[in-house]
Amino acid sequence: MKRALPWFVALVSLGGAMVLGFLLWQAKQDGALAATRGVDAERTARVRITELQSRADDLQTQLAAARTAQALAEKSVAKAAAPAAPAATRTAANAPKVIHIADVMKDHPEYVPLYVKQMRRNVDRMYGDGLDTLNLPPDQLARLKDLLTEKQMNNVDAQGAADAAGLVRDSPEWKEAMKQAAQETEQQIAAIVGPNANSTLDILQARGNFQVQVESNYKMDFVNAGVPLSSEQSSALVQALSDTNYGGRDLSTRPAGYNDPDPVTGITPHEARIIDLASHSLTPAQLEIVKADLVENRRTSAIMNEYRNGSNGPTMIVP
């Protein structure tokens, strides 16, 4: 079959070329005939020429496609006949080139304000409306967002400086350079948020993730069940998920078996706390949806973890 394909493509190419030549000759003959007849005949011939030229163009496209197919077929045959490259060589050849943002900004200073704007958007995505819960005056809230954006930019600037100094990425010296670069900004953030600024921001960032989860995953479940959440109920559910989560909090205060399902109810203490807190704002029908979603998410994670944590290393699960 592999040997027959180039011959087939060659025949298609030859046939297409012959038909193409005939159509172009015929178009010229019609044009010559039109010159000996009146104006009406000439117009008719021109229409005919246009039609034939269109057909010729189609054949030209088919001919090009046939030649491309022939080239691909020949390349495939040559590749099959060539010896396989060593695995190490193939890996090195296929490895993507790594370019750091600091290098891009060095080459294109005009990209800096664009990147700063992206980082500001990233702050809004990371925290959602969580920063509003700090109840800061508007000018302080705006300043905090600027500082969080600046913190991300400091990392980029520090990476560029560390690379220029010849520090190996992720080495102790490199990490210390990153820490020093962020110090001043973090002190200003702590002056606004408080002494436990990092823990508070971690909690608010987790809250931002729950906000996305409610908006993207849970919201349509309530709509489809005919009991949609109001904006106040959505906020209450987000807060319940955040208040019962230990991200950014002292894990030593977490009860034993916090994520172990009860043998009778199938609900974990963690999930029971969420349902209890949400019950102050949600209806019984809405609470049943929350309960079902929590249990389904936990079971889905348990199943997927069987494949992600395999003995052969990390596993990518695709559709």
Commentary on this structure:
It is a single chain. The protein has 319 residues and is an all-alpha fold. The chain has eleven helices and no strands. Helix 7 packs across helix 8. The longest helix has 43 residues. The two termini are 32 Å apart.
- The proportion of residues forming helix, as a percent range, comes to over 70%
Main sheet record:
none
Structural class determined from secondary elements:
mainly alpha
Radius of gyration: 34 Å
Which sequence of SSEs, written as H and E, runs from N to C?
Answer: HHHHHHHHHHH
Separation of the first and last Cα atoms: 32 Å
* Shape designation: globular
Instruction: Kindly report the average pLDDT value.
Output: 75
Task: Give the number of helices.
Answer: 11
Number of strands: 0
The parts where pLDDT drops under 50 for at least 5 residues are 1-59
| Fraction of residues in β-strands | under 5%
Brief description of this entry?
72% of the residues lie in helices and 0% in strands.
